Amino acid sequence: MIGRLNHVAIAVPDLMEAAAQYEQMLGASVGEPQDEPDHGVTVIFIELPNTKIELLHPLGENSPIEAFLEKNPSGGIHHVCYEVQDIIKARDHLSSEGARILGSGEPKIGAHGKPVLFLHPKDFTGTLIELEQV
Ligand code: CO
Prior knowledge:
Layout: E1 5-11, H1 15-25, E2 29-30, E3 34-36, E4 41-47, E5 52-58, H2 66-71, E6 76-84, H3 87-96, E7 108-109, E8 115-119, E9 129-133
Parallel strand pairs: 1-5, 6-9
Antiparallel strand pairs: 1-6, 2-4, 3-4, 4-5, 7-8, 8-9
The structure holds cobalt (II) ion (CO).
């Protein structure tokens, strides 16, 4: 069911410092910061030849990554995103297998303008999984 790894998201305490490190030390192709108010984050995408890295920083009140950064003050891997062909089919299949879908259970439009859902990390070996319809 899942396809390509779309991105790995890393929560960072200082977005510009992390972006500069990827650009200058690692020599990666780093994009501009994008505010995602619906998701409570500012993101910077880093294009790699085979996938993307998404640097995440809290935006506004009650950002979903605020608590994560409190527990991991120097930052850390926050989630992985897998591509699916049909997000509703994927969701219904996963629910029927007992996996918990976070939030309302309805897809939201993600940072790439495509529908996304998140799966409960306790159901997936401690890893927060994002599904993105491509
Ligand atoms: Co993501």
